[in-house]
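Quality-control log, excerpt.
Job 1 of 2 completed; input and output follow.
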Amino acid sequence: MCRVNLHHTFRHHITSASLFRRLGIHDINSYFRNWILRWAGHVTRMPMGPMSRAPRQLLTGWVSNSRPIGCPQMTLGRTLGNALKSKGISKEFDGWIAIAKYRSTADSLHSQTS
C-alpha cells in the first residue's frame, strides 16, 4: 500500500507531479476538462429543433445583450473554451462541433492527456 501524506511529501520533497506520475494518474484539472468535453459532445449530438432538450438549448443559446459589469468570471462558454484550448481544438463552433459529431473521434481526444 502506498501511503503518502503531507508529512511524507514535505519531508522527502515529493512534488505532486512526480507523485501523479508514479501512481499513473492525472491532476484533477485534466479529468475535469475531459468531463466538460465529453458532456459537450453528448449535448451536440442531441437533435436540434423547437422541442430540443434543455442542455442543447443552453449550449447553443445566444443572448444579444452584452454582459453587465461585474459578470461572472467563469461561465459555461468560457469553461468549454478553456477545455478546447487545452486539447488544441479551435474554439469556433463549427470546428469543434464537427469533431464532436463523431463519437469515436471525440473519444480519442479524451484519452489524450493534457
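Job 2 of 2 completed; input and output follow.
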Amino acid sequence: MSAVATDLQHAVEDAAAHLYVWALKDIPQDLRDALAEAQKRETSIPGQRVLSTIMKNVGIADDEHNLVCQDTGIAVYTCRVGEHFPLHPTRIYEALKHGTERATVEHPLRSNAVHTITRENTGPNTGYRLPIVHWEFIADWDGLDVKCVPKGSGSENMSFLKMCVPADGVKGIKQFVLESIVGAGGKPCPPGIVGVGIGGSADYAMYLAKEAIARPVGTRNADPIVAQLEDELYGLLNETGIGPIPVSLSSSYNSSSSLATCGSALRVPTGRVIASFARYIA
C-alpha cells in the first residue's frame, strides 16, 4: 500500500474515532431546537418535567464534556465514496473498524457488541460485520463523506417492519405506523423522532427509515405526496397521547420523516424506526 493510501487510512480511522464519540456527546442544533419547542408546547406537568430533565441532561453533558447517554449503541456508518477516491472500500472499512475500537478503548465507551446466541462480548464495539457500514458510490468525484449514527437499544428495539399489500393503500401505511407507536408506548427512549421507509425490498425499507431519521428535524420530503403523508402522520402521532414517559401527555413526537422508493406492484414494504439523538457527518 502506498504512503498516500496509508496516510488516508489513518485519517479515516481518526475521523471514525472522533465521530463515534462526538455523536454520543454533542446533540445537533436542530435536535436541541426541537426539544426546546416541544418543551414550550407541552401542557402536561409530568411531560414538562421529563422534557426539562432531558434538557438539563444535555446541558450537563455539554459542561462536563461527557456522554449524553450511557448506551453507546452500535456504530453505524454511511459512506459516500467518490469513484476517484484513492482508498479502496476494503481499507475504508478497516479504518472505520479500527477507529471504532480506538474510540471505545480510549474514551472509554461501554462495549455493546456480543455474540448473537452466546451473548459473549466480541470486542470493543466490533465483531462479525460490526461496525455496520452502508455504502453509496458517487461518479466523477474524488471525495469521501462519512456519517455516524450510533443506534442504541432504547430506540432500536422499537423498530418494526410490515409487508403491506397494494390494496392497503396509504390508509394501511398510516395504520401500521400508528399501531406500532401505540404498541411501543413509553418504551422507546424519549422524545421520539419517527422514520418511515416505504417501498423497495424489506431490508431496503428499513434502511430508508434509518435514512429518514437522519434528516434535520422539521424538514420534509422533496416529493410533495410523501411530504403530505409526513404532515398527516405527525399530527396523528401527537394525538395518541403518548408522551416522553408512559403516561398521557400532549406532544412527545417531534418529527415524522419518510423516504419512499419504487417497489414491486405486488407488495409495499414499510419499515418504521424511532431515532436516538445522535448523528454526525464528517
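Post-run check on job 2. The CA atoms of residues 60 and 66 lie 8 Å apart.
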